[in-house]
Design goal:
This protein has 152 residues and is an alpha/beta fold. It contains six helices and five strands; from the N terminus they run αβαβααβαββα. It has a single domain (23-149), classed as Glutaredoxin, CATH 3.40.30.10. A hairpin with a 5-residue loop joins β4 (123-127) and β5.
Protein backbone atom coordinates (compact mmCIF):
# COMPACT_ATOMS: atom_id res chain seq x y z
CA UNK A 1 0.00 0.00 0.00
CA UNK A 2 2.86 2.37 0.84
CA UNK A 3 4.49 1.68 -2.52
CA UNK A 4 1.25 2.59 -4.28
CA UNK A 5 1.06 5.92 -2.41
CA UNK A 6 4.69 6.71 -3.24
CA UNK A 7 4.09 5.81 -6.88
CA UNK A 8 1.03 8.09 -7.05
CA UNK A 9 2.89 10.99 -5.42
CA UNK A 10 5.84 10.59 -7.81
CA UNK A 11 3.47 10.42 -10.78
CA UNK A 12 1.75 13.66 -9.70
CA UNK A 13 5.10 15.41 -9.20
CA UNK A 14 6.39 14.29 -12.60
CA UNK A 15 3.20 15.33 -14.38
CA UNK A 16 3.12 18.70 -12.58
CA UNK A 17 6.72 19.48 -13.45
CA UNK A 18 6.22 18.50 -17.09
CA UNK A 19 3.19 20.79 -17.33
CA UNK A 20 5.03 23.74 -15.79
CA UNK A 21 5.84 26.44 -18.30
CA UNK A 22 9.55 26.40 -19.06
CA UNK A 23 9.63 29.33 -21.48
CA UNK A 24 7.64 32.45 -22.20
CA UNK A 25 4.76 31.75 -24.57
CA UNK A 26 3.91 34.69 -26.82
CA UNK A 27 0.65 34.91 -28.75
CA UNK A 28 1.37 35.74 -32.37
CA UNK A 29 -0.93 38.58 -33.45
CA UNK A 30 -1.22 37.26 -37.01
CA UNK A 31 -3.14 34.27 -35.64
CA UNK A 32 -5.76 36.64 -34.31
CA UNK A 33 -6.04 38.66 -37.50
CA UNK A 34 -4.23 41.47 -35.72
CA UNK A 35 -7.00 42.18 -33.22
CA UNK A 36 -4.92 43.77 -30.49
CA UNK A 37 -8.10 45.41 -29.11
CA UNK A 38 -9.38 42.10 -27.75
CA UNK A 39 -6.18 41.69 -25.75
CA UNK A 40 -6.45 45.25 -24.42
CA UNK A 41 -9.98 44.45 -23.18
CA UNK A 42 -8.72 41.25 -21.55
CA UNK A 43 -5.82 43.10 -19.86
CA UNK A 44 -8.16 45.67 -18.39
CA UNK A 45 -10.70 43.07 -17.21
CA UNK A 46 -8.01 40.88 -15.62
CA UNK A 47 -5.81 43.79 -14.45
CA UNK A 48 -2.80 42.49 -16.40
CA UNK A 49 -0.05 44.32 -18.23
CA UNK A 50 0.62 43.67 -21.92
CA UNK A 51 4.07 43.05 -23.37
CA UNK A 52 4.25 43.62 -27.13
CA UNK A 53 7.37 42.01 -28.62
CA UNK A 54 8.59 43.10 -32.07
CA UNK A 55 10.85 40.54 -33.75
CA UNK A 56 12.00 39.72 -37.26
CA UNK A 57 13.63 37.05 -39.38
CA UNK A 58 17.39 36.83 -38.94
CA UNK A 59 17.37 38.76 -35.66
CA UNK A 60 20.33 37.41 -33.67
CA UNK A 61 19.48 39.31 -30.46
CA UNK A 62 15.92 37.88 -30.71
CA UNK A 63 17.32 34.35 -30.96
CA UNK A 64 19.71 35.00 -28.03
CA UNK A 65 16.83 36.22 -25.88
CA UNK A 66 14.70 33.19 -26.82
CA UNK A 67 17.48 30.83 -25.71
CA UNK A 68 18.93 32.68 -22.71
CA UNK A 69 16.22 34.99 -21.35
CA UNK A 70 12.77 33.60 -22.22
CA UNK A 71 13.71 30.17 -20.82
CA UNK A 72 14.93 31.47 -17.44
CA UNK A 73 12.60 30.33 -14.64
CA UNK A 74 12.77 33.72 -12.90
CA UNK A 75 11.68 35.41 -16.13
CA UNK A 76 8.80 32.98 -16.61
CA UNK A 77 7.64 33.73 -13.06
CA UNK A 78 8.04 37.52 -13.51
CA UNK A 79 5.83 37.47 -16.61
CA UNK A 80 3.23 35.04 -15.25
CA UNK A 81 0.63 37.81 -14.90
CA UNK A 82 1.43 39.59 -18.18
CA UNK A 83 -0.28 39.11 -21.55
CA UNK A 84 2.51 38.31 -24.02
CA UNK A 85 2.01 39.33 -27.65
CA UNK A 86 4.37 39.08 -30.61
CA UNK A 87 4.44 40.67 -34.04
CA UNK A 88 7.09 39.26 -36.36
CA UNK A 89 8.40 40.86 -39.56
CA UNK A 90 8.74 38.20 -42.26
CA UNK A 91 11.81 38.86 -44.40
CA UNK A 92 12.35 35.44 -45.96
CA UNK A 93 12.35 35.63 -49.76
CA UNK A 94 9.47 33.85 -51.42
CA UNK A 95 8.96 33.39 -55.17
CA UNK A 96 5.85 35.55 -54.89
CA UNK A 97 4.80 37.03 -51.54
CA UNK A 98 1.36 35.88 -50.55
CA UNK A 99 -1.44 38.23 -49.56
CA UNK A 100 -1.13 36.99 -45.98
CA UNK A 101 2.64 37.63 -45.99
CA UNK A 102 2.11 41.23 -47.18
CA UNK A 103 -0.76 41.77 -44.72
CA UNK A 104 1.32 40.53 -41.76
CA UNK A 105 4.26 42.77 -42.65
CA UNK A 106 2.00 45.77 -43.27
CA UNK A 107 0.42 45.38 -39.83
CA UNK A 108 3.83 44.90 -38.19
CA UNK A 109 5.12 48.13 -39.76
CA UNK A 110 1.91 49.97 -38.78
CA UNK A 111 2.42 48.95 -35.13
CA UNK A 112 6.09 49.97 -35.21
CA UNK A 113 5.06 53.42 -36.45
CA UNK A 114 2.21 53.71 -33.96
CA UNK A 115 4.49 52.96 -31.00
CA UNK A 116 7.44 54.90 -32.45
CA UNK A 117 9.86 52.01 -32.16
CA UNK A 118 13.18 52.24 -33.92
CA UNK A 119 14.19 49.77 -36.60
CA UNK A 120 15.98 47.64 -34.05
CA UNK A 121 15.03 44.13 -33.03
CA UNK A 122 13.95 43.01 -30.60
CA UNK A 123 11.80 45.85 -29.26
CA UNK A 124 9.55 45.39 -26.24
CA UNK A 125 6.66 47.72 -25.37
CA UNK A 126 5.15 47.29 -21.91
CA UNK A 127 1.61 48.57 -21.36
CA UNK A 128 -0.46 49.06 -18.23
CA UNK A 129 -3.80 47.24 -17.87
CA UNK A 130 -5.40 50.52 -19.05
CA UNK A 131 -3.37 50.46 -22.28
CA UNK A 132 -0.90 53.22 -21.39
CA UNK A 133 2.66 52.72 -22.57
CA UNK A 134 4.89 52.20 -19.52
CA UNK A 135 8.24 51.67 -21.24
CA UNK A 136 10.06 50.57 -24.41
CA UNK A 137 13.31 48.63 -24.48
CA UNK A 138 15.45 46.64 -26.85
CA UNK A 139 17.50 43.51 -26.16
CA UNK A 140 17.93 42.82 -22.42
CA UNK A 141 19.66 40.47 -19.99
CA UNK A 142 17.69 38.22 -17.65
CA UNK A 143 17.96 40.74 -14.81
CA UNK A 144 16.97 43.69 -17.01
CA UNK A 145 14.00 41.78 -18.44
CA UNK A 146 12.75 40.89 -14.95
CA UNK A 147 13.06 44.54 -13.86
CA UNK A 148 11.21 45.57 -17.01
CA UNK A 149 8.22 43.37 -16.03
CA UNK A 150 8.04 45.11 -12.65
CA UNK A 151 7.87 48.65 -14.04
CA UNK A 152 4.74 50.63 -13.24
Amino acid sequence: MLNLKITIVLFVVIISSSLAQDTLKFTDLKRYDHKIDSFEEKAKAENKKILLYFSGDGCRPCERMKKEVFTDKSVVEAYDNVILLNTHLIMKPYPMPSKIHRKVNKYHIKLRREFETENEYPTFCLFSPDGDLIAKRNSMTVEEFISFAQME
